[in-house]
Amino acid sequence: MTPITRRDSMAGLLGLGAAAALPSGLRAAAPAVLPGADIPPQGIGNKIRHIGYSDQGGRPDGVQVMINRKHLYVGHMFSDGMTTLDASDPRNLKPVNFFTAGVNTRTHHLQVANDLLLLANGANIVSMQSYDTGRGYFENTLADSITNRKPFRSGLSIHDISSPAEPREIAFLQMPGFGINRLWWTGGRYAYVSAHFDGFTDCILCIVDVQTPTKPTIVSQWWLPGMNRAAGEVDPTPKGKRYALHHMIVAGDRGYSAWRDGGLTIHDISDAARPKLLSHINWSPPFAGGTHTPLPLQGRKLAVVCEESNAEFW
User: Fold this and answer.
1) Backbone angles phi, psi at 109, to 5 degrees
2) Containing domain of residue 25, as a range?
3) How confident is the model over 41-69, as pLDDT tens digits?
4) pTM of the model
5) Per the domain annotation, does 27 fall within a domain?
6) CA 312 to mean position of chain CA atoms
7) Does residue 3 have a pLDDT over 70?
């Protein structure tokens, strides 16, 4: 099998983005897999049996996948919408619904619990970016990257999925800015959201009370010092680095947050209205940065932290 570099992957993703923007009648011409991937029909994996496949209604740019009542909910990176698949027969996945929150509005990340779906709404930065290469994305704040701003929807939408094939929006919490990047919610009272707000350099932590799903409210925000540009804070981010919350993962009353080139923070969130910083470590430098996913393993008193490949080889 031919190895695929990050450059190849990004080129492939951009190709998928272009394909997703094509009229449906032209999408068939887009490649099903990245050039050179050479994936056999049975799939790849040790002791993993490939039993089904879907191009998600001609939109192959899936990002986040969640399941409820034998239906899959797929957020898209480029297609400005969310797809619902009937997975009652996993060998024959059937697209049954696609909806969009609006042109230029990306709904790529979602969380599902208790017949509710929380959906990120934000700017489709692919259509508004000023990046020539991936370096522009990794080495600049979000606020300084979007130079071709277009109308879009920014905030958190909540959907009733008790009728799984027909998601129904029951609330929308507006967040003025470029919108939500990721969120973490497992059915409790609070959702932990990474979002950009006007006046900030990039995405920060926002805790939302969803106890009454039809009336979500913001209870607190937290950011690294220097990110509140509107308040006159001095941004200490080194040139070519990007401090931005990718997302927080919660275990008990602790929240673990990845800040791209800003490292890892651990918070006491027992009082959601006042998240308290317990520790902050940043290994960039000497390492390249791109802190992406912090996975707490409470039973072992460990946290596994993953880095995203950044602009080093662009």
Assistant:
1) -130, 140
2) 1-37
3) 666 777 777 888 899 999 999 999 999 99
4) 0.86
5) yes
6) 22
7) no
Backbone φ and ψ of 61, nearest 5°? -95, 45
Residue 17 and residue 64 in one domain: no
- Mention every residue, 6+ apart, whose C-beta is less than 8 A from residue 212: none
Q: Could you tell me if residue 49 is inside a domain? A: no
Give the separation between CA 281 and CA 273, rounded to whole angstroms: 23
Residues 235, 168 share a domain: yes
Whether 239 and 298 share a structural domain = yes
Considering the chain, what is the average pLDDT of its residues? 87
Question: For residue 271, what are its two tokens?
Answer: 């009082």
Residues 6+ apart with CB under 8 A from 10: 134
Instruction: Give the helix/strand (H/E) hosting 10.
Output: helix 6-20
Q: What's the structural domain count of the chain?
A: 2
Q: Residues 104, 31: one domain?
A: no
What tens digit of pLDDT does each residue of 161-214 get? Answer: 999 999 999 999 999 999 999 999 999 999 999 999 999 999 999 999 999 999
Burial track 75-107 (b if 16+ CB lie within 10 A, e otherwise) = bbbbbbbbbbbbbeeeeebebbbbeebeebbbb
Bridge-based pairing of strands 116-123 and 155-160 is: antiparallel
CB 262 within 8 Å of CB 248: no
The answer to whether residue 19 scores a pLDDT higher than 80 is no
Strands (E), 202-242: 204-209, 217-222
Q: Is residue 165 part of a domain?
A: yes
Residue with tokens 């056999």: 40
